[in-house]
Structure formats: C-alpha cells, structure tokens
Amino acid sequence: MAAVVKMESSKAFSELQDKVICQVIETQQKVKLIGKQIEQLNITKSCVYLTDIQIMALEDDTNMYEGVRRMFVHQSKAVIHNQLQEKLKIMDEKIKELEQKKAYLEQSIKEAEDNIREMLMAQSSHSALSLYCRN
Question: Member of which family (predicted)?
Fold first, then answer.
C-alpha cells in the first residue's frame, strides 16, 4: 500500500516537474524573441534618427517627397521632421514596453527555477525521511 502511494506521489511529482520545465523553456523562447524585437527596433530607430539628422542638414527650401504607397507626395522639411520625431517617440515607447515584458518573463523564469529547486529539495528530504523512518 505504501509503495503504491509513493509511486503515485513520485509520478505526480514528475508530471509537475515536467510541466514547470516546459513552461520555463517556452518563457525562455519568448525572452529571446523579445530581445530580437528590441534589437530590430533599435536598428530601425537609429536609421530614422540618422535620416532625421540628414534632413535637418538640408536647406529649408529643398524639395522633399514622402513615399505613400505607390506615389510620392511633396512635403515640407518641417512636416517630414515632425513625422520622423513621432516615429522615434513611438519606437521608444515600444522598446520600453518590450523591456518591461522581458523583465517580467525573466523574473518568472527565475521563480520557476526556484520552484523546481524547492520541489527537488522537498522530494529528496522526503525520500531521506522515509529511509530514516524505516530504520
């Protein structure tokens, strides 16, 4: 009878441990994906920033055109500058959101790893206690 209970307990522990490990792996993959998204946003942000610097170096009366689908629309330097500044703000906000998500996911990974350690320690102390009680 005791062996059956121990076997069921061990099986339940294994299933729980497998579930937690799968969650940790999924979360680690999400963290990597968010890291790549942040990296790509930073690259795009630097391109927009450099474009804005180049545009601001031009004279005010320079003809500028904005690509809109399959055509180009004549815009003033100020309008294009404002659009680029707005893009930079939006990218900064997205980067901050992604960094917050990444920090949250990293914290959840740490907590899951701690839970696994605690389960292993509890399982090993339970096994040691049962061995001690037999003797």
Answer: Belongs to the prefoldin subunit beta family.
**Contact partners, residue 120, CB within 8 Å, separation at least 6:** 17
The CATH-assigned architecture of domain 34-104 is Orthogonal Bundle (1.10)
Quickly list DSSP for 20-51: HHHHHHHHHHHHHHHHHHHHHHHHHHHHHHHH
**Helix axis angle, 77-134 relative to 2-57, nearest 10°?**
160
Q: What pLDDT does 119 receive?
A: 77
What is the rounded CA–CA span in Å between residue 123 and residue 120? 5
Residues 6+ apart with CB under 8 A from 124: none
* SS3 letters across 59-85: CCCCCEEEEECCEEEEECHHHHHHHHH
Ramachandran quadrant class, 37 (left: phi over 0; alpha: psi -120 to 50; beta: rest): alpha
Q: What single letter denotes the amino acid at residue 60?
A: D
| Domains of the chain, residue spans | 34-104
Q: Is the pTM of this model over 0.85?
A: no
